[in-house]
Design goal:
single chain, Ubiquitin-like (UB roll), 7 domains, six-stranded mixed sheet, about 25% helix
């Protein structure tokens, strides 16, 4: 390890590190001193470690360039977790850090020397790679096992835990800078629930690292935020994904004492404000990726937040007044500034240049860095006139460079805002925002502190007005202040030196240079999306955050006809790489237990795991339980069904969008059995819908698909629709009482008329059973007279016991899941996810009777109209065999060497004394002509007769008794 460098600065009021809490981390087994508040990257920087990673393609050394939310490089292994963003990872006592590149000889570093041979798409152009399958396999393995490319991954000894939280505030503010804090305060004072999300571990944004004076309003606003109980502040939380239905996915890096590594917040606000700020635009020069090259904001973060010098000697280059402020910052903190290269011929303001001159710092107007010197890290720079190929050589250990700023618009672009390039300002701005969204602060190009604060207040007032709050006074005051604000300053032009020594990198993530883009243009690529994919520019870990501005700017420079537009490539979620574990958060293998579980277990129930639920499979003899349903009555637990309430003026519109049957005109006591399809006409779920009142509905889904169906509803909801969906799955229990004696049993517990005339088949009513308020739905899933009873979960055990007490004298038995499956199979009911796969359409599943072909706006309707005219690709068919045959779900349907499909459900029916089942098969017409199918059982073919379901009571008379 390198000799430790004395880069730590004395304590100051702006620092976020806690000097009273030192700790030790280990880099390649060697101890590294740090403080609570440091990140892994800043701790390694303090220890004098410059190279922390190697680049993807050329294996060039890489160090700290950016420390903000988009700091993806360097990626390292931390406590066994690979590809960890160390610039965004707080240190923890005893943390083990390893580089992902091999120390010593790395033959793949030769790729940097042979960059001409490794041009864009080289593996498609060189016969050594594609001339035969064997050479391609060898080349592919060689590239994938290259050092730094994760040729092997060691499983973690201790698996990290992840968490998920759902939030539904009225106002979401993304970005905790001055504008974001002002917006959050406006919301909090209005009384609405507010969530403020900040990617850093502290508030203040850009102004938190501009020195003590700039920090004063930050501290004042921070103190104000603590006074409101209706305001939640989430730090270390990155808003990473925004979806058209208004869902925001935010990922939080948890504190060391938190039991979870990361936490995902699923936030559905009514309105949202984007105050995501701006970052430095990289300055283009040869070797602009060397360790020691960093942004102006990075240098200021090191000094003001972490108490660290960027280096002992630095050179600063850029084209706006900010570089002078950075230079003064460096000088005031003991850093020797060897010079400031300002690309503007007139230089900076007189005040700034004279202040810097007093410290003896050379200023070179009209000049920029055109090359970084040094192999493993920066040792100097060539500085010359803008556009020159040569200049004067300067020694330095770091180059602090910026070519202006880039508003961080990718998140608002995910929200369907239009991103427009402003040629006068030299950067992109968000326009035509969806209703209920607003932007504020540096995202809009603002730099003046008071203007940023006023715009934060204005944004909050405007979006809150859209949800009915009276904010006109706030709007008028904020607009008046903004009218007096200084004009927005334009970005400097990017440096265009043609110096040949070293490569000028556009995309640091994938090692894409200006020459690579030149080659793509020469080969006929002109569309930004095509050039992006061909060169892989903006497709690295940082997803274009650092590279997109220069990528678009260079394309416009090379294609002058597009200079004024600079159309962006489509931003898609996530904003940056997301740990797969946190995406699965909230879906731990923690089984759910229905409210009737314990009372059934006490009665002798045997359990089975079905998806997330633990259910009762049977009470000893499932076949006897089945016969009880047909002879007297059976009582089963169906609490695991998805149960939802949907209400609001647009509830009917929402239901009609998702469901295949029309909900319009549904009478108050009628049950609508319906299905939901995807765009390809494939059934994804089925269930029932009932109308509780005006604009108020209750619907159920299958047990397996409940959570997914809820997300499907949200996916297709228009943002302006006034309708709300409430998940009642665990709040309401469900029981199915089925059998010829079921009406008599229920009548013992209620005075409500349950006769055939008062409550016919596929109708429902509200009633009290043993004084418990219930929805009683008369349906026929089990093939007999039956009633599905939905009641509050906290009263379900009492009602269950009352039903048992009333029914046992009449032969009632408790029944489990196995008996339910036998009874439903006798009726030929197909189950989504069990009896057909994710490619089987409504017609092939024989559920097309659930489609109202007059509906034009439901999901899948256009495809269903086409499918109605086409032959089946596959089909669900029924079969039977006499007696008991030991067939299982999944056994194959065959004929000699040919395979037609497989059994999806099969059971022995004691009522029919037959083995009955359903199978999903191809070439069904061929099988139908034969009138039988052959099933592969224990090494031989078994013949079964084809039967059109249902197998029992095909006329449905038993359902209507």
């Amino acid at each position: 390890m390198r000799k430790k460098m004395k880069l730590r600065l004395p304590p100051s009021s702006t620092q976020v590190i806690d000097r009273s809490r030192p700790l030790t981390i280990y880099y390649m087994g060697n101890p590294v001193k740090a403080y609570v508040g440091d990140t892994v990257a800043t701790a390694l920087h303090a220890a004098g470690i410059k190279q922390m990673a190697t680049s993807f393609k050329y294996h060039r050394p890489r160090g700290i360039m950016e420390l903000g939310v988009h700091a993806t490089d360097p990626l390292m292994e931390v406590d066994g977790r690979f590809n960890t963003r160390v610039a965004r990872t707080p240190v923890v006592e005893g943390m083990r850090v390893e580089p992902q590149f091999k120390k010593g000889i790395d033959i793949f570093k030769l790729a940097d020397k042979a960059s001409k041979a490794l041009q864009v798409g080289f593996y498609y152009k060189n016969p050594l790679f594609y001339k035969s399958e064997k050479t391609w396999d060898k080349a592919r393995k060689m590239m994938r096992t290259a050092p730094g490319n994760l040729p092997s991954i060691t499983p973690l000894k201790i698996k990290p835990a992840f968490d998920e939280v759902n939030l539904t505030p009225e106002l979401l503010v993304i970005g905790g800078g001055l504008g974001g804090m002002e917006a959050a305060l406006v919301g909090a004072r209005s009384g609405v629930r507010v969530v403020l999300v900040e990617a850093e571990g502290w508030l203040g944004g850009f102004h938190a690292f501009q020195g003590p004076k700039a920090l004063e309003p930050v501290l004042h606003l921070k103190e104000q935020l603590t006074k409101f109980s209706n305001l939640t502040v989430l730090t270390w939380t990155t808003a990473s994904m925004v979806y058209p239905d208004g869902l925001f996915v935010c990922i939080q890096t948890c504190a060391p004492d938190d039991p979870f590594l990361e936490r995902s917040y699923l936030i559905r606000p009514k309105v949202a404000i984007f105050a995501t700020g701006a970052m430095d635009r990289p300055l283009m020069f040869a070797n602009n990726d060397r360790p020691g090259v960093m942004f102006t904001q990075t240098a200021q973060r090191l000094v003001h937040l972490y108490g660290l010098k960027p280096e002992e000697e630095v050179l600063i280059s850029g084209g706006d007044d900010q570089i002078y402020k950075v230079a003064l910052d460096m000088v005031e903190h003991g850093v020797r500034v060897v010079g400031v290269a300002d690309s503007r011929a007139q230089g900076g303001s007189d005040e700034l240049t004279s202040s810097l001159a007093q410290h003896g710092v050379p200023i070179w107007p009209g000049e920029v860095v055109i090359e970084a010197k040094g192999k493993g890290a920066v040792t100097g720079a060539i500085v010359g006139k803008v556009g020159a190929t040569s200049g004067h050589s300067e020694k330095c250990k770091a180059i602090i460079a910026s070519s202006g700023r880039t508003p961080l618009f990718k998140l608002i672009a995910q929200a369907q805002a239009k991103i427009v390039y402003d040629p006068k300002l030299g950067f992109h701005l968000a326009k035509d925002l969806p209703k209920g969204y607003a932007t504020a602060g540096r995202l809009n190009g603002l730099e003046d502190q008071e203007a940023i604060r006023a715009q934060g207040r204005l944004a909050a007032a405007e979006v809150l007005e859209t949800i009915g709050l009276e904010t006109k006074t706030d709007i008028d005051e904020a607009r008046e202040l903004l009218g007096k604000a200084p004009s927005i300053k334009a970005n400097p032009s990017q440096s265009r030196s043609t110096r040949l020594n070293g490569q000028r990198f556009i995309c640091f993530g994938n090692d894409v240079t200006e020459k690579d883009v030149d080659q793509a243009l020469e080969e006929g690529f002109t569309n930004v999306e095509m050039i992006k994919r061909y060169t892989t520019a903006t497709m690295g870990a940082e997803q274009g955050a650092l590279s997109q501005a220069n990528f678009l700017d260079y394309l416009a420079y090379k294609q002058p006809n597009q200079m004024g537009s600079q159309q962006i490539n489509t931003p898609r979620p996530p904003l940056a790489g997301v740990c797969m574990g946190v995406m699965a958060a909230g879906h731990h293998d923690q089984p759910k237990i229905p409210p009737l579980h314990w009372v059934q277990l006490k009665a002798g129930g045997k359990t089975i795991r079905t998806g997330p639920w633990i259910r009762i499979e049977h009470f000893g003899d499932p076949e006897e339980e089945t016969l009880a349903v047909h002879r007297s009555a059976g009582l089963c637990d169906v609490s695991t069904l998805g149960k939802f309430r949907i209400f609001g003026p647009d509830a009917e519109k929402w239901l009609n969008r998702v469901n295949t049957r029309s909900i319009e005109g549904l009478s108050d006591n009628r049950i609508c059995y319906t299905a939901a399809c995807n765009e390809e006409g494939v059934v994804i779920d089925d269930g029932i819908v009932i109308k509780l009142g005006d604009d108020d509905y209750y619907f159920t889904t299958s047990t397996a698909r409940g959570p997914a169906t809820m997300e499907w509803y949200y996916r297709w909801k228009e943002r302006e629709w006034e309708a709300w969906l409430v998940n009642l799955t665990e709040a309401r229990a469900g029981m199915n009482l089925a059998g010829p004696a079921s009406r008599e049993i229920l009548s013992k517990l209620t005075s409500t008329d349950l006769s055939n005339e008062a409550l016919p088949f596929m109708h429902w009513t509200k009633a009290e059973l043993a004084e418990v308020p219930c929805y009683i739905l008369r349906m026929g899933f089990l093939g007999e007279l039956s009633y599905e009873i939905h009641c509050p979960s906290n009263q379900s055990v009492y009602l269950w016991e009352k039903l048992i007490e009333a029914g046992e004298p009449l032969g009632l038995k408790r029944i489990g899941l196995e008996a339910q499956l036998i009874c439903r199979l006798e009726k030929g009911h197909v189950l989504p996810g069990l009896d057909f796969d994710g490619n089987t359409n409504m017609f092939e599943a024989h559920l097309d009777w659930l489609w109202d072909s007059s509906k034009e706006d439901s999901i899948g309707a256009p495809m269903l109209r086409l499918l109605a005219k086409q032959p089946f690709r596959c089909e669900v068919i029924g079969f039977k065999l006499d007696g008991r045959v030991n067939l299982k779900d999944g056994h194959l349907v065959v004929n000699g060497e040919r395979q037609f499909g497989y059994i999806t459900s099969v059971r022995y029916s004691p009522l029919l004394d037959q083995t009955i089942g359903l199978a999903l098969v191809q070439n069904s017409e061929e099988l139908k002509k034969a009138g039988e199918i052959k099933l592969w059982l224990e090494g031989k073919e078994v013949r079964a007769n084809l039967v059109k379901p249902p197998f029992y009571d095909p006329s449905g008379e038993r359902l209507r008794i």
